[in-house]
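Chapter summary example.
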Amino acid sequence: MTATGTTLVIGATGTTGSRTAARLAAAGHRVRAASRSATPVPGATAVRFDWYDPATHGDAVAGTGRVHLVPPVGDPDPAAVMLPFLARARTAGVRRAVLLSSSATAAGGPAAGAVHEALPDLFDEWAVLRPSWFMRNFTGTHAHAASIREDGVVLTATGSGRVGFVDAEDIAAVAVHALTDDRVPGTDLVLTGPEALAYDDIARIYAEATGRPVTHRRLTHGQLRDHLTRTAGIPAEFAAMLATMDRTIAEGAEDRVTDTVERLTGRPPHTFHEVVTRETARSAGAARP
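The structure predicted for these 289 residues follows.
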């Protein structure tokens, strides 16, 4: 990895952004860590950045050669704010852009799909990361992690559908490669873990790794929608969309494994058992006085 210059990491305090910024800094790259509150990030220069405040964009992008893009969370049309920023970034001298999207969203699709489609026309050097569902959903602050901690249960409408769950650390490792390697990917990269797992498998492996009983409770599309609306306070339309995503998993949409992580980083992706063991140990260490 020999690319030089400063990298702007948008969303540098988030799940993947924080890991990407840390890896870049550890490798000796200059990093500008962007977040709405300009939160300090070890080894990086913190800058204020808000997708919805163009006044923050100029200072954030000035003097940078590469940018890692994390779309605004929860925005159904992120292209409306992202594309004007990207045009400004190109004018300011940014030559490489790496977009975090998802395995469920192809170029031209909803959400970040419109940005994905536009990226090759904006930059000669580009890549789109399309990770599968995060393993961290079961160990962090996601609703699945909360239901495991509180009730020992995972609630889904996925049936027997399988997912190539991926570790956030592996996503960050690929992001650093895409940002800094001399050979720019120039394509989209679907990222998965080493195996496709059903939620029954997730419950079993979690229990094996922690010694805590966990079960997968299978719900219908309607039951999950109603549960999300009633207990989590999620608006009905958004809850229906989440339930529909589970249904696509049940239909096999995420049942795949790719070699992208190993091909680009030189090592195999982490297993779910490894991630649960690692994150459980971190949580226990953080809880000690």
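To summarize the output: The CA atoms of residues 11 and 17 lie 5 Å apart.
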